[in-house]
Design brief:
Number of domains of chain A: 1
Helix content of chain A: 55-70%
Mean pLDDT of chain A: 88
Largest sheet of chain B: 6 strands, mixed
Helix content of chain B: 25-40%
CATH class of chain A: Mainly Alpha
Radius of gyration of chain B: 19 Å
CATH architecture of chain A: Orthogonal Bundle
Shape of chain A: globular
Largest interface: A-B, 33 and 40 residues
Mean pLDDT of chain B: 87
Order of helices and strands of chain A: HHHHHHHEEEEEHHHHEHHHHHH
CATH class of chain B: Alpha Beta
CATH superfamily of chain B: P-loop containing nucleotide triphosphate hydrolases
Radius of gyration of chain A: 23 Å
Structural class of chain B: alpha/beta
Distance between the termini of chain B: 43 Å
CATH topology of chain A: ABC transporter involved in vitamin B12 uptake, BtuC
Number of helices of chain A: 17
Number of helices of chain B: 9
Structural class of chain A: mainly alpha
Strand order of the largest sheet of chain A: 1-6
Oligomer: heterodimer
Strand order of the largest sheet of chain B: 6-7-8-3-9-10
């Protein structure tokens, strides 16, 4: 189906099902219970899952396939946001022109940065991209203030021209009049499900982005990108020019980042320079490696994992901890809170750092490798239970790069 | 006029004159061996031919066109393929994927943005790659990871990757180095067979005289960057200059 083999079609269908049912799946705990704060099914966070999923999918096309580690991809995210907000100001609050311009501008920007940075590989490439991104970040704060509105950030205002919008047009970001913020709430089994238009728009785009990356992974172009990672010498003696391949991958992943930036602006029409800072670039690197670089699903998982940590784990403060351990005697309660507290709330990054270290050391293939090991273990176990030949003599096939 | 005409090539590395006025002509459809003691400049010459090194002086004409100043991928697209001393393959990819890359390179040129098409749907190229794998007896290993192949298989794979492009000229850098005698004989057989099947010109650099005299139709002896003699194998065997070059080397080896 859709030019995919059965296995990939199944994967795509699973992704579509999971994405569309996210508002339900992320509300597993009933309202009012102590666990309700772990629910992640509110629109703002779900939008972020989808948007950063797109960002990571695009980054993975460059890093996962070619092995070129860019440390400046947040620049494209920021450029996408600025472009989109300018379209909201000048043309229309309809998000489509903004998104289209975001993709085009970030693509051109990636072409420029990639053209220069890809003259080097390895650490020098990473440093060059980092330098470019930091340069963009600083320019956005200083020289480019007329375009970026400096520290305040670029916002939409009531007296923007918006030449395509009529007098009574919606002042909020919308898709042909349907505001992104509109939601349908449904209370069922004590759980509150929010079906938000903005989320579903992001979700559809994310599914398309995932489908496109699936096609790229399975295409001759994807094969060439993996060849770049393996052996550039053999590649050039095979009659292939690696440079345009890496540049194309760089531009494509830059456009993904721009699309993600445009979507961020479409959900909340505000663009600030901090979106381009190197920490933001580092975040997408973490997402990709945590989930599993070079795998199809890994970056999406990594993005979800980190955004969940950032938004949910960070909300567990002292008061919450005290309420959890309230059943314990006072002294022990305080001691336990004292021990746990640095790892939650504002210390969520500490936990994330530890998880990241554990994953990199024990699961170099990221969460995807963890999943594969577990499923291999279950399969081995069930096979043993069947009393058939032991797995020692039937070693599992090593995971294929693109699975 | 040969397929490959090397004229007056000179290359200096610092104080070392690696190649000194090398002139060489390789005729179409022959197997031409280049032999010589270590440090004679054989590999430097090969690196010049594939565009890895740019010589200080001289010219290299291939099929009527100059090779010098072109990038390695452009030279390959002209029809020159190279097998390396240590196999250069795509270790993380499967054997079949290794084979498909040169097929795409041959058909689509140095770059094509075919990002949406599926590899699977390229029936013609898949068949071509599989045929080549059968020719080198590796078809049953097509799903294996190339890095997990044995050294001999890696060599065969690399050779197959070069041959599937149907190059006009195949450069082989010590194709049997480090092989057991049985494997060496297999490789000789394979090269002979491929030669008869594909009408291909080969330049072989080799230390193993058994291989050289089994395969070569012409031999050039290189010593200290200069060609000593070029002749048919029968005349090379007893040639005094050749004896001298090799004996000289072994005498040095004994004293040093």
């Amino acid at each position: 189906m859709l030019g995919l083999n059965t296995k990939d079609t199944r994967l795509l269908l699973i992704v579509i099902a999971l994405t569309l049912s996210t508002p339900i799946l992320l509300q597993p705990f009933a309202e009012g219970t102590g666990l309700a704060q772990f629910n992640a099914g509110y629109p703002d966070l779900m939008q972020r899952f989808a948007i950063f999923g797109i960002f990571a999918i695009g980054f993975n096309i460059l890093f996962g396939l070619t092995g070129y580690l860019s440390f400046g991809h947040a620049a494209f995210l920021g450029v996408g946001s600025y472009s989109a907000v300018w379209m909201f100001k000048l043309l229309s609050m309809n998000i489509l022109p903004g998104l289209i311009l975001a993709v085009i501008v970030s693509g051109l920007f990636a072409l420029l940065i990639g053209f220069v940075s890809l003259r080097r590989s390895g650490i020098y490439f990473s440093i060059l991209t980092l330098a470019f991104a930091q340069m963009s970040f600083n320019l956005a704060y200083s020289v480019l203030t007329p375009i970026t509105n400096g520290e305040t950030g670029l916002q939409v205002t009531l007296n923007d021209p918006r030449i395509l919008d009529g007098v009574n047009a919606s002042p909020y970001t919308n898709l042909f009049g349907l505001p992104m913020s509109s939601s349908v709430k449904l209370e069922l089994l004590g759980r509150l499900f929010t079906f938000n238009l903005g989320y579903y728009f992001c979700a559809v785009i994310a599914i398309l982005a995932f489908y496109l990356s699936l096609r790229i992974f399975r295409s001759p172009f994807g094969l060439m990108l993996r060849a770049v990672k393996c052996n550039q010498q053999r590649m050039s003696y095979t009659g292939l020019n690696a440079r345009p391949y890496t540049l194309a991958a760089f531009v494509i992943s830059g456009m993904y980042a721009g699309l993600a930036g445009g979507l961020l602006a479409a959900m909340d029409p505000l663009a600030g320079a901090e979106r381009m800072q190197w920490t933001a670039s580092g975040e997408v690197v973490l997402m990709t490696i945590l989930g599993g670089a070079g795998t199809l699903m890994g970056p999406v998982l990594g993005a979800g994992f980190i955004k969940y940590f950032e938004n949910i784990f960070s909300k567990i403060n002292d008061t919450v901890l005290h309420s959890w351990f309230a059943f314990l005697p006072d002294g022990i309660e305080d001691a336990l809170v004292f021990v746990v507290q640095p790892f939650v709330g504002k210390g969520w990054q500490l936990t994330l750092g530890l998880v990241f270290m554990l994953v990199v050391v024990f699961l170099p293939g990221g969460l995807m490798e963890g999943g594969q090991r577990i499923s291999a273990w279950i399969r081995r176990k069930s096979r043993k239970d069947d009393g058939r030949a032991d797995s020692e003599h039937r070693p599992g096939t090593s995971p294929h790069i693109a699975e | 006029m040969g397929l490959l005409e090397v004229k007056n090539i000179g290359k200096r590395f610092g104080g070392l004159q690696a190649l000194d006025d090398v002139t060489l002509s390789v005729r179409e459809n022959t197997i031409h061996a280049i032999i010589g003691p270590n440090g004679a400049g054989k590999s430097t010459l090969l690196n010049v031919l594939v565009g890895k090194l740019i010589p200080d002086t001289g010219s290299v004409m291939f099929d009527g066109q100059s090779v010098l100043g072109r990038k390695p991928h452009e030279i390959n697209q002209m029809g020159i393929s190279r097998v390396f001393q240590t196999p250069e393959i795509f270790g993380e990819l499967s054997v079949m994927e290794n084979m498909l890359i040169p097929c795409f390179a041959k058909r689509d040129g140095a770059f094509r943005l075919h990002a949406i098409e599926s590899i699977r749907s390229e029936k013609g190229l898949n068949a071509q790659a599989e045929q080549m794998l059968s020719d080198v007896n590796m078809i049953d290993k097509r799903h294996m990871n190339a890095a997990s192949l044995s050294r001999g298989d890696k060599r065969r794979l690399e050779m197959a990757m070069c041959l599937v492009q149907q190059p006009k000229l195949l450069l082989l850098d010590e194709p049997t180095a480090g092989m057991a005698r049985a494997d060496t004989n297999n490789t000789i057989e394979l090269l002979r067979e491929l030669k008869s099947k594909h009408d291909i010109t080969m330049v072989i650099i080799e230390h193993d005289m058994h291989v050289v005299f089994s395969l070569a139709e012409r031999i050039t002896v290189l010593a200290q960057g200069t060609p000593l003699v070029e002749d048919i194998p029968a005349n090379i065997k007893g040639h005094p200059k050749v004896q001298e070059a090799y004996l000289g080397q072994s005498a040095e080896g004994a004293t040093g």
